[in-house]
Amino acid sequence: MHTMKALIKREFLEHRGAFLYAPAVLLSIICVAVAFLLIAGNGELEGEYIVAPTGATMYTIGVAASYIVWSVYLTVALFFYYADSFSADRRNNALLFWKSIPQSDLKILTSKALSGITIFAALIFGFALVTGAIIYLVLVVVSFQHPALNAPGIFEALQIYVQMGFVAAIYYIVGLLTQAPALAWVAGLSTLFRRWSIPLAFLIPGTVVLLEFINSIIGFGNSRPIAKFLEGWFDSNFNEELAAEILMGPAGGAPFELLKLVLSGTDWLSVAIGLVLTAGVVYLASEYRRRRIGA
Amino acid sequence: MNASNIIASARGLSKTFGQTEVLRGIDFDIPAGRIYGLVGQNGAGKTTTLNALLGLTDSEGQIEILGQNPFQNRAKLMNDVAFVADVASLPRFLKVQELLDLMTDLHPSFSKDKAVEFLAGTEVKPGAKIKHLSKGMLAQLHLAVVMAIDAKLLVLDEPTLGLDIIYRKRFYRRLLEDYMTEDRTVLITTHQVDEIEFLLSDIMFLNDGKIILDTPVDEISGRYTQVSVGKDLLEQAQNLNPIYSETRFDHTVMVFDNVPAENLEPLGQTSTPSLSDLFVALMQGKTTTDGEV
Fold it and tell me: Which of A27, A31, A77, B216 has its Cα between 20 and 30 A from that of B267?
């Protein structure tokens, strides 16, 4: 456990740019921009409100939006991370150094696989939490400038913050579990093809789907198993419309209704199969790494 | 040779890349407490031999390090084996301090205090980023890291490649003075045989995937003799079957294998060939004249 933590720390040191510095810079820029807008604002709202949402609802929507935006950032950053990390040790012959450490290739690649769903996900989740707190401060300032808008009270906001944080944590975990085979796919490709794994991750399934399509057109069979699998994987059972309805409704019960929606929209059998495939990719990649020290 | 004293051994070690046979069934035993030099031309199979020893590549034949198959047990073996395959291979994204901390966490036989002590007299500073270090500083850092590992076997593959003479001499001096004990074994490959001759206890010459010499250095003087022969005694010297001869201006330098000293002394000035002269003699094994390579 101690060495696994150290290996994950190694991943953090190598990739802190994408998961710590870049989000910190991004958040700082957004804070500065929002602060500028608040200071430069003239204190009057354009247009009229027919029904102004309550402060609690606005805060819930704001927090949910920040979690979704940061989860998109996490997905993109993890895609690029896995497109590189399994072959990163080959850069500058560094693999020779890591081979001199008494740690197996399987353990090292497992640490890389786990880093993405532990430390890096936690970091981005942390930025989402900070963003949630900033959103509250912004709402408070805006409510002073525009009395038509109410910020929730501090205790109510804290309750929403904690509850939404809990829901978002589950949402992030479920999302990572669901995405695991796709991330393993690009990681496995990077083991063999390094940076070429990024285009190949799309090109290979795209070609297969195209061939299936051509095959169905020329009449050799209508079943398109790969296309259907990918379609099912991309088109999750998560009901976005219902989620929006819940968010726009009374804030009190929203977090737990959202949680139910996240959990009920997950195909747990597919998740389990995906995790087995992911473990298989990590094992095969480690065997490849064990046998090949050259480029 | 006491079998329990053997650190590394190979029997019929072979390795093929495609159609090319890089190692052709070599045998050797490396006992503890020795400093072995593995010398060979480019492509002779030195690095492949080391890779097989370190478990970095699979091979045919039998090979054991500390009684274990290195390819099957590399991670476990690295507790007792340290190696430097390329001084530029240190991870560039780390600072020196971070590298030492990581080594402490990942290597049970690593002593951070020792590494800091080894680095104390160098230009390498703890806060420096590895990617900003010069090649000489990288070599110092890498050597400090491996010397801080309490290993039974240290393997160095061309450790001073690309370094200037000052760093090369410092590298080997520190290795001998600060690291070597009777319990430790060092295996070095290098092209610059002359530079490590003073520290070697044993030498192995590899040619075309085969070992052509494996002997303690102090036995070389009893077996090989170099004689500078004048023109008038050339025919007499040739009759003693030199393994190598090279004409230099007005005399011919010949190397003899296992020829009694009393037979050679009348032919001219005798001496023990240096390792580089012996290497050339065994590799070329034919007569050369001025200017021939």
Answer: B216
